[in-house]
């Protein structure tokens, strides 16, 4: 069954299109919209993405999964059959706001019950905005097993063939680049380790993959006979270019842990898009990209065409123990690896280099969507590592998040108030005098599945404050992703955020809209969004292990405006037997 809204949310779509300056009438958009249908079987298969054979989560036998290509205004329908045999499943459409279809967000425990083994479930949603997005599993730590892919939404054309809301840059052709990190241990081993006392950390990835391929040193394989360096499944991807032409590289990071630095040897990159929004162009030698982010960069094929060049992916923000991930840029179609050494990127601990690139990412002058001038509500979140009964957890304002057994959307729409804690988590902490450079003075935390209820239509600021972990002199980068919304990135800082001082420095002129943003070590990031999309939406660190360990919150807004829920999303928790 296609999970479409009972009544088309025309007013929401029309408001959205106007807000994006696309000047498309709803009737015109619907007249040209198509339905893109896909049928997927998700199963475990033995794969060798980095030459080491292991069980991988696949879509129709492949990892990464197929790229979804659509045009703005199209409806995407994906019929998913769960053939994982012993595991539940949910798939999140990362960056798609699900306006009018909150049940299709694909977040187990928040918007749906999981798809049971052997069951089939159809996601259906409208892709309302052009740009580069992704999809991935959103059940447990399943994303790490290989269930992910890219979504590309093209700008709509009018019946005469003209492009509506033409992009503010030109190029001759394009390539998709999907970046990931990869472990030889299973997600089950990782999850059990994280939940153990003492905790067993997942460790650094064994390999970095580009479009699902990497290369592990077979001499270091833990199990003899499991690594085959000649397997075609780990052959380096080749990106073909023609001399003199300009190429758009759509880059998506679906890493489970690693912040990455991406470089194309010998070719400067002009950043033009971030998370589906146009950027004031700026030129970089290499691009810092965090889990859950997407970028488009332009390169000119203007180097010596008689040799090949490396595409390189390197770990930053963590002391790397993983070899450079590589692919090949070829002017001739030759697959031979370049004779040069792959670029190693900037120093992994150069926080200010990454910070400055974040600050440089602002809206394109012709595509600025000004934020509301002030917020109705401010939520200040202190991000700390803590302990609960000996278990290592992550917490916000001393509360570690856990998912309820009954999805919030189902519970709230059906009045099942006993399904989760009705007490909201704290929305502030005693920031005066708090030392973000020291381990938390109180290492203990509590656990809750409470959520924040937002007044529909209100403007909300969230300030994410990073701080030292349990161990001294240790703080990590956290990429935070908001479901159901884009937010304006108002500002970044290093050190403790002061509500009486720092809001005066917010960028209210040309802030970029994004759905995922980095919080740098010992720093803060401030975002603003409008609570105008009825539903229940997760906001969490996009590092798999960190969300698993409690680094997340949930917002509810306008739940009474949500249409009748499809019965297919029920059947778990307090709705058992209601599937």
UniProtKB/TrEMBL annotation:
Recorded superkingdom: Eukaryota
EC number: 1.10.3.3
Cofactor(s) recorded in Swiss-Prot or TrEMBL: Cu cation
InterPro entries per the UniProt record, alphabetical: Cu-oxidase-like_N (IPR011707), Cu-oxidase_2nd (IPR001117), Cu-oxidase_C (IPR011706), Cu-oxidase_fam (IPR045087), Cu_oxidase_CS (IPR033138), Cu_oxidase_Cu_BS (IPR002355), Cupredoxin (IPR008972), CuRO_3_AAO (IPR034267)
Keywords, alphabetical: Copper, Disulfide bond, Metal-binding, Oxidoreductase, Repeat, Secreted, Signal
Record-level Gene Ontology MF annotations: copper ion binding; L-ascorbate oxidase activity
Residue span, Plastocyanin-like domain: 44-154, 177-333, 424-558
UniProt KW Cytoplasm keyword: no
Pfam family membership, one: Cu-oxidase_2
Localization per Swiss-Prot or TrEMBL: Secreted
EC class of the enzyme, as a word: oxidoreductase
Gene Ontology, cellular component aspect: extracellular region
Range of residues in the leader sequence: 1-33
Subunit organization: Dimer.
Name of protein: L-ascorbate oxidase
